[in-house]
């Protein structure tokens, strides 16, 4: 089954207002004509509104790098799903390995974020993936299964149409080491089989599963040629307009 590709750029804690708006302008230009795929940017919260203005009228989608489960209240440092919708964002990345590893976000908290975002009609990109140690201990599948089933607890079948999974092996993020296309395909096929178990086959067939971890112009085409890879979540290369433009226009 042909699923619509999604290329998402995660700018992490980078870019000033001027640099971010300039980059977004260039990304919007690169996305012109790429009508058979979705392109999405997740800028830092300080500039998400400005980037939203730049993207208005373009096909490029806007998302947060995280989101709280509550609509409002005493949650210092958090951004709510309602606030994201208010500035024109359509979704959020949740459970990025940097949130899990550096900021100690548990599967339980990530699940609250996923359910909260979906309940507020946002699209969710749920990130999962094993560390190098876990891969070496041959625990890759066990970790994927745990993170996926815990992360999706309470999600309804109907909500899965707004759900995207990103497989991001932690050892490949920002390291220049990409999972081989075979390693990525194996993990993606496994994730799809788990989605089928958790929901049903039809949901699994429609679910977009992105690969993330040092995606570059040089490796995007072979990754995207794999049957279960439906897109890319891009960090470092998303900060360079030319590289990201080439990734958007993968062949
Ligand atoms: C990411 O931040 O999700 C990521 C995959 O980063 P990079 O492309 O730099 O490895």
Element layout with pairings:
Layout: E1 5-10, H1 17-31, E2 37-42, H2 48-55, E3 61-64, H3 81-86, E4 91-94, H4 97-101, H5 107-119, E5 123-128, H6 132-136, H7 140-151, E6 163-167, H8 181-198, H9 201-206, E7 208-212, H10 217-224, E8 231-234, H11 241-248
Parallel strand pairs: 1-2, 1-8, 2-3, 3-4, 4-5, 5-6, 6-7, 7-8
Helix pairs in contact: 1-2, 1-11, 5-7, 7-8
Structural key phrases:
alpha/beta; 16% strand; 11 helices; 8 strands; eight-stranded parallel beta barrel; single chain; 251 residues; binds phosphoenolpyruvate
Short description:
This protein has 251 residues and is α/β, with parallel strands linked by helices. It is 41% helix and 16% strand.
Walk me through the structure:
By secondary structure, this protein is an alpha/beta fold. It has one domain: Aldolase class I (TIM Barrel), CATH 3.20.20. It is built from eleven helices and eight strands. It has an eight-stranded parallel barrel, surrounded by six helices. Helix 1 runs parallel beside helix 2 and helix 7 packs across helix 8. The longest helix is centred in the last third of the chain and has 18 residues. The two termini are 18 Å apart. The model has no long low-confidence stretch (mean pLDDT 97). The structure holds phosphoenolpyruvate. The site of phosphoenolpyruvate (PEP) has 13 residues, from strand 8.
């Amino acid at each position: 089954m042909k699923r619509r590709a999604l290329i998402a750029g995660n700018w992490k804690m980078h870019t000033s207002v001027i640099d971010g708006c300039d980059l977004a302008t260039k990304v919007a230009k690169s996305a012109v004509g790429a009508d058979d795929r979705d392109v999405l940017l997740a800028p830092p919260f300080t500039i998400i509104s400005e980037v939203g203005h730049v993207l208005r009228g373009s096909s490029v989608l806007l998302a947060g790098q995280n989101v709280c489960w509550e609509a409002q209240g005493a949650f210092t440092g958090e951004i709510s799903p309602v606030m994201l919708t208010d500035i024109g964002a359509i979704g959020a990345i949740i459970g990025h390995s940097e949130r899990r590893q550096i900021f100690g976000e548990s599967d339980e908290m990530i699940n609250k974020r996923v359910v909260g975002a979906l309940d507020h009609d946002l699209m969710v990109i749920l990130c999962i993936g094993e560390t190098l140690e876990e891969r070496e201990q041959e625990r890759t599948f066990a970790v994927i299964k745990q993170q996926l089933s815990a992360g999706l607890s309470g999600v309804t079948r109907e909500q899965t149409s707004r759900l995207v999974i990103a497989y991001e092996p932690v050892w490949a993020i920002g390291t220049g080491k990409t999972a081989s296309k075979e390693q990525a395909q194996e993990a993606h096929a496994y994730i799809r089989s788990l989605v089928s178990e958790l929901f049903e086959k039809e949901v699994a067939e429609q679910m977009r599963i992105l690969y993330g971890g040092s995606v570059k112009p040089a490796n995007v085409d072979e990754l995207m040629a794999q049957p279960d890879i439906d897109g890319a979540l891009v960090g470092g290369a998303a900060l360079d307009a030319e590289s990201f433009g080439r990734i958007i226009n993968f062949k």
